[in-house]
């Protein structure tokens, strides 16, 4: 077991390396570079000066060097823990991520915990009361939840919140708290701002968890071993929660592998719409502006989380299901 | 109370009276069990014989109330005399999720199934699945339950029972899994074991071992068995009494020797003729004409008449025959025996000759 995990962990490194090369190439693929897009944006603001110093800008950012040279230099520094600087924000990538990771994880973990915490019991209820009024109602709600994108819900909630309180609850903090140290009032303010994004994303998240849980549990409840359990006089509650639910968790645990990356990569559009100071909004901008070191670092982080998540899911599945063995 | 034997005990352990179990599907109502009456003696072995889809398994499932929606028991009575030995209790009156029924399942009446490969939960060890049955019915500690489980595995002739406890179902062969299923069923010493085609999915040598094991265990433990099968050979080995079912109805009932010596219902006769016999010149094996009609589309009159070589036009296709006694303990539902004294003659006149033109 320990050997298997070690082997899998070692295998992560070459995969990450390939992801990095590929990511770098994709970002280089469009015509132009960060300087080109910077100049265009400066034009938009009426600043024609930037175009004059194009070459100086390019050598300032070392963008005049060939791709492979920039890549190798960056990767060498990356290995030592220096992720480079963001062109656009003129700050070390590490600082940008440090600023945002806390709030990003706060929102995404809250969303994750709530949607799984609600989704699993509701899915179990739906499956064990198939075609009842409540099941039909929940099924309808889940289809709406799955059909509506979370950013649209977020917008609707934003307007609703504005009509109810007169405040436009974008971002995660009110201006007056921005540079304040943490206090109960600031925490309350944060929670107030979290309600809209968390609700919007929880609705779609719960809907998905519920659908998966309901479908799998129904499948399991139709299996032969359920009849055996009933025939030996095991209480129905135990049959459902101990046996059927445990057998239904496979796809959810497999999805858990993706969830780890989703924590810093999910609900990007909602983040943008609500101006949330999360990693995903910074990632999207960095990609658009070819801010390669910032985008590259986040890409590696996402790739790393996907690989670790998949490994964790594999380990949990093997631990839960005696039929799965390490090769 | 004239029926009661000594000690005021009812002679039968289970009495099914006019049981009707229907499936309410989108294509219509399927009367899978249509007015079945059966008796199982204390410690007796009743065989329930019939082709696929005749309702024999549904009858077994109905006893333990294991019929799944859209199936439902719509009428009749299943009276169990295992706890209330003189008055009995009607199992059809219990709620499917009630504690009373839960205490019957496994502890009083146990059941084993056709598919040992899928009848165990793949995520739990064999030991924990046997112990689960014990712990939900007996007031014992975990380590006592473990001891009972190992003893039961030993009783079903499982080699190295203590090691097998740690195994998971997928690590065992079909025969071994069926032994585990039998061990689960026997772990609480039930008074009745329902065996629903327990050897159908097994190969022939394993089948013989399991059948022998079940016979020995029945002798040792004195429990009654309801043996459900389509296999005449198996029924001959396992049962003392037999009921033959066709399309949801019992068409013939007697003890095993009488049934094999003198089958009276044309369906039973046809079944007997469709077995190859050793010593006879190999020719074409007799098959029953036609197909079993779908249980959702039962023919009017006697359900067997479209396939019956002795069918009487104008009678068998309009009126449904009732079970009647043709001799002591031999019941047949067929118009050929409407007058019991003519039974023999009628059978001879209408022997199953393929060349006889249909009426």
Tell me what you see in this structure:
- The complex is a heterodimer of chains A (327) and B (359).
- Chain A has 327 residues and is an all-alpha fold.
- Chain A has 2 domains: 2-92, no CATH class; 99-290 and 298-325, MetI-like (MetI-like fold, Orthogonal Bundle), CATH 1.10.3720.10.
- Chain A is 76% helix and 0% strand.
- Chain A contains 15 helices and no strands.
- In chain A, α6 (93-128) crosses α9 and α9 packs across α11 (236-248).
- The model of chain A has no long low-confidence stretch (mean pLDDT 88).
- Chain B is an alpha/beta fold and 359 residues long.
- Chain B has one domain (6-108, 190-345): P-loop containing nucleotide triphosphate hydrolases (Rossmann fold), CATH 3.40.50.300.
- Helix content of chain B is 28%, strand content 22%.
- The N and C termini of chain B lie far apart (48 Å).
- Chain B is built from 11 helices and 12 strands.
- In chain B, α3 (126-135) packs across α4, α3 (126-135) packs parallel to α6 and α6 runs parallel beside α7.
- In chain B, a hairpin with a 2-residue loop joins β9 and β10.
- Chain B has an 8-stranded mixed β-sheet, sandwiched between helices. A 4-stranded antiparallel β-sheet of chain B has the order 2-1-4-5, covered by helices on one side.
- Chain B is globular, with a radius of gyration of 22 Å.
- Classes of the chains: A mainly alpha (327), B alpha/beta (359).
- At the A-B interface, α10 and α11 of A face α2 and α6 of B.
Quick recap:
With about 325 residues, chain A is mainly alpha-helical.
Lay out the secondary structure.
The complex is a heterodimer of chains A (about 325) and B (about 350).
Chain A: H1 2-28, H2 34-44, H3 49-52, H4 54-60, H5 67-79, H6 93-128, H7 133-147, H8 150-165, H9 184-221, H10 224-231, H11 236-248, H12 250-265, H13 268-273, H14 279-288, H15 292-320
Chain B: E1 12-25, E2 28-41, E3 45-49, H1 56-63, E4 71-80, E5 89-90, H2 99-104, E6 109-112, H3 126-135, H4 142-155, H5 161-164, H6 174-186, E7 192-196, H7 204-221, E8 224-229, H8 232-238, E9 241-246, E10 249-255, H9 256-261, H10 266-273, E11 324-327, E12 330-332, H11 343-349
Parallel strand pairs in B: 3-8, 3-9, 6-7, 7-8
Antiparallel strand pairs in B: 1-2, 1-4, 4-5, 9-10, 10-12, 11-12
């Amino acid at each position: 077991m320990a050997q298997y995990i070690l082997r899998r962990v070692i295998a992560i490194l070459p995969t990450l390396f390939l992801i990095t090369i590929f990511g770098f190439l994709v970002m280089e693929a469009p015509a132009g570079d960060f300087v080109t897009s910077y100049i265009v944006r400066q034009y938009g603001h009426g600043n024609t000066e930037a175009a004059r110093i194009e070459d100086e800008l390019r050598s300032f950012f070392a963008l005049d060097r060939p791709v492979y040279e920039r890549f190798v230099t960056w990767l060498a520094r990356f290995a030592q823990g220096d992720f480079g600087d963001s062109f656009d924000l003129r700050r070390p990538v590490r600082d940008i991520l440090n600023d945002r990771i806390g709030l990003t994880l706060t929102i995404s973990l809250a969303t994750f915990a709530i949607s799984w915490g609600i989704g699993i019991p509701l899915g179990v209820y739906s499956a064990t009361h198939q075609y009842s009024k409540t099941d039909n109602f929940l099924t309808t709600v889940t289809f709406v939840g799955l059909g509506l994108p979370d950013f649209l819900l977020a917008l609707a909630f934003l307007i609703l919140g504005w009509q109810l309180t007169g405040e436009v609850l974008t971002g995660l903090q009110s201006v007056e708290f921005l540079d304040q140290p943490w206090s109960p009032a600031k925490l309350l303010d944060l929670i107030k701002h979290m309600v809209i994004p968390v609700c919007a994303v929880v609705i779609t998240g719960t809907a998905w968890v519920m659908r998966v849980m309901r479908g799998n549990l129904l499948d399991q409840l139709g299996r032969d071993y359920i009849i055996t359990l009933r025939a030996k006089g095991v209480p129905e509650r135990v049959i459902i929660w101990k046996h059927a639910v445990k057998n239904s968790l496979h796809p959810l645990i497999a999805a858990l592998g993706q969830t780890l990356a989703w924590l810093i990569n999910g609900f990007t559009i909602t983040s943008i719409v609500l101006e949330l100071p999360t990693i995903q909004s910074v990632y999207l901008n960095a990609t658009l502006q070819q801010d390669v070191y910032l985008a590259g670092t986040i890409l590696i982080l996402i790739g790393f989380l996907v690989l670790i998540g998949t490994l964790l899911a594999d380990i949990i599945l093997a631990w839960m299901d005696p039929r799965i063995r390490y090769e | 109370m004239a029926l009661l034997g000594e000690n005021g005990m009812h002679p039968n352990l289970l009495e099914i009276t006019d049981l009707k179990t229907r499936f309410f599907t989108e294509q219509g109502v399927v009367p899978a069990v249509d007015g079945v009456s059966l008796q199982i003696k204390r410690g007796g072995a009743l065989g329930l014989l019939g082709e696929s889809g005749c309702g024999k398994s549904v009858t077994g499932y109905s006893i333990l109330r294991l019929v799944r929606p859209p199936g439902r028991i719509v009428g009749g009575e299943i009276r169990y005399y295992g706890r209330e030995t003189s008055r009995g209790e009607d199992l059809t009156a219990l709620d499917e999720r009630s504690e009373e029924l839960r205490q019957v399942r496994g502890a009083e009446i146990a059941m084993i199934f056709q598919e040992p490969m899928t009848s165990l939960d793949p995520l739990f060890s064999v030991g924990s699945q046997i112990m689960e049955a014990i712990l939900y019915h007996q007031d014992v500690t975990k380590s006592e339950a473990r001891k009972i489980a190992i003893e039961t595995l030993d009783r079903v002739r499982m080699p190295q029972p203590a090691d097998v406890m740690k195994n998971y179902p997928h690590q065992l062969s079909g025969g071994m899994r069926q032994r585990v299923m039998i061990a689960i069923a026997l772990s609480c010493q039930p008074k009745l074991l329902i065996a629903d085609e327990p050897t159908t999915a097994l190969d022939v040598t394993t089948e013989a071992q399991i059948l022998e094991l079940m016979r020995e265990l029945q002798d040792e433990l004195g429990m009654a068995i309801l043996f459900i099968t389509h296999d005449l050979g198996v029924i001959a080995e396992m049962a003392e009494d037999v009921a033959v079912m066709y399309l949801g109805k019992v068409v013939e009932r007697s003890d095993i020797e009488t049934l094999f010596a003198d089958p009276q219902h044309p369906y039973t006769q046809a079944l007997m003729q469709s077995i190859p016999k050793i010593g006879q010149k190999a020719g074409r094996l007799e098959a029953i004409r036609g197909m079993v009609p779908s249980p959702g589309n039962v023919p009017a009159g006697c359900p067997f008449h479209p396939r019956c070589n002795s069918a009487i036009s104008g009678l068998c296709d309009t009126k449904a025959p009732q079970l009647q006694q043709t001799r002591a303990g031999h019941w047949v539902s067929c118009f050929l025996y409407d007058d019991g004294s003519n039974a023999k003659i009628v059978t001879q006149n209408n022997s199953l000759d393929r060349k006889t033109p249909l009426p």
